[in-house]
Write a structure and sequence with these properties.
Strand content: 15-25%
Oligomer: single chain
Radius of gyration: 16 Å
Shape: globular
Strand order of the largest sheet: 3-2-1-4
Number of strands: 4
Distance between the termini: 28 Å
Length: 126
């Protein structure tokens, strides 16, 4: 467990919906690519920690898929002061996946959408 994940476990309470992950139909034997809405280090650490807690594979892509990533993000926020969403990396990653699957028709991959929401619980004052 990384230092950041230990710090986050002290401050962040995770709620997984649905609570029964088998209802999602995820086959842990097949490769999984998680798709985050927005890319951030916190979201990636929360995802990795929860995958480990729930016995879901986090890095399970076969070795013949060297260029594909396990976690993709729909958008990345660029800029420091004026945050502007960029979708170009997602398009490139998705294009790579689709072209790989086109070249290898027997290969299978599961795209699992993941949303990470950060904020204060409504009943907390500060």
């Amino acid at each position: 467990m990384s230092i950041l994940s230990k710090l986050l476990s002290l401050r962040v309470k995770v709620k997984i919906i649905p609570t029964d992950l088998t209802k999602l139909g995820i086959d842990s034997k097949k490769p999984i690519i998680y798709v985050l809405d927005t890319d951030s280090l916190i979201s990636r650490v929360v995802l990795k920690t929860e995958c480990q807690k729930n016995q879901l594979s986090y890095r399970n892509l076969p070795e013949q898929w060297p260029n594909l990533t396990t976690v993709m993000a729909n958008k990345r926020l660029k800029g420091f002061w004026n945050r502007v969403p960029s979708y170009s990396v997602f398009k490139e990653n998705l294009t790579e996946i689709l072209s790989f699957l086109q070249d290898h028709p027997k290969a299978e991959v599961q795209l699992v959408p993941v949303s990470v929401f950060l904020g204060m619980a409504p009943n907390k004052n500060s």
